[in-house]
From TrEMBL:
Coiled coil: none annotated. Gene3D superfamilies: Zn peptidases. Residues 32-320 form the Peptidase M14 domain. This is M14 family metallocarboxypeptidase. Belongs to the peptidase M14 family.
Length: 320
């Protein structure tokens, strides 16, 4: 059940949207807590030196985030793709780290590349963007330095450098058959990010119950219930799946089936709605559960990717 909890954020005046001063104050309070170079780029580059991956995969730098106006420097953005693109095969897309604080979205994508990229690259064209928001990863943040949520910005000419770089990259590729977007729902959604959003926008904060367990968010316009069911079945072997609350909802949305809710992704500017992929889902891992380890969270992300890819390839007759 949704809880109406007014938590007054430390920045701004209740009922008044932030201006430049408030955004600058917020940014000044976001220290670097971990390294994009050490935890993402270095492992990614090392992975691609392995003979099996080097034979089928390559890195593509698809842009550079320039936050020098905030005295933050620049961040190179990388994707992993098939070394040899075959236009007769479908495209399978994985995105991670749209919200940089959602750790298993990034680390799960890297684990998938390490353990499974070569297998699927033999059957299809595979494109993985493991960390779309590197500053958010370093500062464990939902927003970018402009206090913009990249995952509400996947529209042409939107306000997020991160989203715009991804959209430009995908313009070079055909429409994916599958798009799996890796996320987490964390306790900090209620303790930090929702109150911060309400303060930024000058609105009233309404917290939701954080589901204890894994769930998926399908697309209202193309729910693909069997696709979602297969992925939930796969992940339930790794970690527990969230139960609906006493109103039959997860994060305020009506349960469609066990572990699955739907959002209108395109109209909300979500990463999961940025393509016309037939099969789309957004993962939501709960890393704060005492019943789930970081390794399980990463493995749950991988289980969803593999189950989703297997289902879509079989359904379209694309399996070798």
């Amino acid at each position: 059940m949704t809880k109406s909890v007014q938590r007054i954020y430390s920045i701004g005046t209740v009922g008044t949207p932030w201006g430049a001063a408030e955004r600058a104050l917020w940014l000044s309070q976001q220290p670097v807590k971990r390294s994009y170079q050490a935890e993402v780029l270095a492992p990614l580059q090392q992975l691609l030196t392995a003979p099996a991956l080097a034979a089928c995969a390559e890195l593509q730098c698809y842009g550079t985030l320039d936050y020098s106006s905030h005295q933050l420097g620049t961040y190179p953005l990388y994707a992993v793709k098939n070394r040899h693109f075959d236009s007769n095969k479908p495209l399978l897309l994985v995105t991670g780290g749209v919200h940089g604080y959602e750790t298993s979205g990034v680390q799960g994508a890297l684990l998938f590349i390490r353990e499974h990229f070569a297998h699927y690259a033999a059957q299809a064209n595979v494109l993985v963007l493991p960390c779309i928001s590197p500053w958010g990863y370093e500062t464990i943040n939902r927003w970018n330095p402009d206090a913009v949520d990249p995952n509400r910005s996947f529209v042409a000419g939107g306000p997020s450098q991160e989203a715009n770089a991804v959209l430009a990259l995908l313009g070079q590729f055909p429409t994916p058959l599958v798009h799996i977007d890796l996320h987490e729902t964390t306790d900090s959604d209620n303790s930090e990010f929702r109150p911060a959003k309400a303060a930024r926008d000058g609105t009233v904060n309404t917290n939701w119950n954080i589901p204890d367990g894994f769930y998926l968010v399908g697309d209202t316009a193309k729910p693909q219930p069997e696709f979602q069911r297969v992925m939930i079945a796969a992940v339930s072997k790794i970690t527990h799946v969230a139960e609906a609350d006493d109103t039959g909802c997860l994060i305020g949305e009506a349960l469609q089936q066990f572990g699955v809710v739907n959002y209108p992704k395109k109209s909300l500017g979500l990463c999961g709605g940025m393509t016309d992929a037939v099969y789309v889902t957004t993962t939501e891992v709960y890393p704060d559960s005492p019943r789930a380890t970081p390794a399980q969270c990463n493995q749950a992300q991988v289980a969803v990717i593999c189950a989703g890819f297997d289902y879509a390839l079989a359904a379209t007759g694309s399996v070798l």
